[in-house]
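Observation: inputs received (chain + 6-O-phosphono-beta-D-fructofuranose).
Thought: call the complex predictor directly.
Action: predict_structure
Action Input:
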Amino acid sequence: MTELTQSQTWNELKAHTKDLPHMRVLFEQDKLRFDTMSTSACGLFLDYSKNRANQETLSLLFKLAEETKLASKIKAMFDGDVINTTEKRAVLHTALRAKPEQKIILDGINIVEEVQQTQAKMATFVTAITSGSWKGYTGKSITDIVSIGIGGSFLGPKIVSQALRPYWNKDLNCHFVGNVDGTSITEKLKPLDAETTLFIMSSKSFSTQETLTNTLSAKDWFISNGASQADIAQHFVAVTTNVAKATEFGIDADNIFPMWDWVGGRYSLWSAIGLPIALMIGMDNFRELLDGAHEMDKHFANTPLSENMPVIMGLFSLLYGNFHNAQSHVVLTYDHYLRGLPAYFQQLDMESNGKSVTLDGTRVDFSTGPVIWGGEGTNGQHAYHQLLHQGTALIPADFIMPLKSHNPLGEHHIQLASNCFGQTQALMQGRSYEEALVELEGCDLSIDEKSTIAKHKEMQGNKPSNTILMDKLTPGTLGSLIALYEHRTFVQGAIWDINSFDQWGVELGKSLGNDVLTRLGAEKDASELDCSSNGLINMFRQQSI
Ligand code: F6P
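Observation:
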């Protein structure tokens, strides 16, 4: 048994959550619930009143956070302690958005200075591309950026660029290639012109199979479209910690943007991995994105736990996973530009908190990270929301919406907002059997039929949700929002005492994939593997060509 589940507070929470009335009752009992259970920070407003909680629940949750030393764990991260213990690394993505005058010393070096130098290099590069002074091999300016990377080196730049489309440079377009499936790069390159295309190879390690393979294919495409080996310098840049390997691969040393071991892949969009974003929205807007995240860092580091937005959100997620048996958590964005965020938060949270042992290696006796999924409102309302309302699984939801649209078209935004708020209301209050019967009054049905249909129309409600609003989707509010989720993920990992910063499951997949590769190529026999793997490998060998 872990210390956590034996603690008095944990067990008090267990008992307390069983006795809590339906949220409808909580709202009736406390007319000020919206005022007392909402908070603002860094351009974001959080309404957490539609949660299964009263003041006692909150007190117990904050007590749990205090007892598990959350505040000192937050400090340890910001101070650069080696909190990624299995990889013996500090976790300092917060340094990437620190102010230039800040000092963060790691191994005797002020890493803020290094970050600033890299940002200056990015700024010079962005100006060269966007001003048109950087020319392709035939003297034309760059019109298309192809970013090649996977995992954190793919999703962050892709989703943030997509979200900030209103800020795009009109003369540039960007494309993202992640998957090693040849279809991905083939389709992306089809409409492009080698003379005006710039490739950014993003790989922290510079050893990820998908990225190396896609870059080689990009090089082949480039050369086969009329360029020469010498032209590569004007068309290929790299972002990596492994400068030596990138140079060996053929990338010009001047075109390599450094990053550092203390930045985890899924936390790296704030580094030069964000170069595609900076190219598309300009360096000033990229800095605004960093500033938004920095504001959230300050809020997280300095605000008392009970008013701390990431702490509140992290504790609620923990409450449902550990005390209400919720296995998943849905993120619903009511803004088309934010449609990719659920996938981004999925990687962030599931790669971080999908763990089964505590820091000292003890197997956990509680649920850790939930399945994160989601999509775009209102589309989901006509599909999977059915399960949210009437399914047997409890799925807490986050609704995210800007108050002002970038495209204020007729009645669209007011309708979007009505759907967003209407959903949170419906999830919370549900519809009782009696209410369903009243709705059926006047229908041409027998009493028995009405009773049966009312049972189908009944919704228990009491389904929790957070609503996050912002004035408008800007680089700054987006930066704050993403940092909010980063820290929310941290909060849960810290209370569970797990390592949120390694990813051994993912690494296993990588090494087994490499082993199978040698067997598929017939260099190695597969007969000593399990019969399923052997059978599949043989089938591929015989039939793939
Ligand atoms: O998929 C696992 C992972 O290690 C991620 O954490 C990382 O973002 C991704 O692979 C890509 O790694 P790299 O940037 O080293 O190519």
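Thought: report the result.
Final Answer: The two ends are 53 Å apart (CA to CA). The chain has three domains: 3-67+303-405+463-496, 93-287, 504-544.
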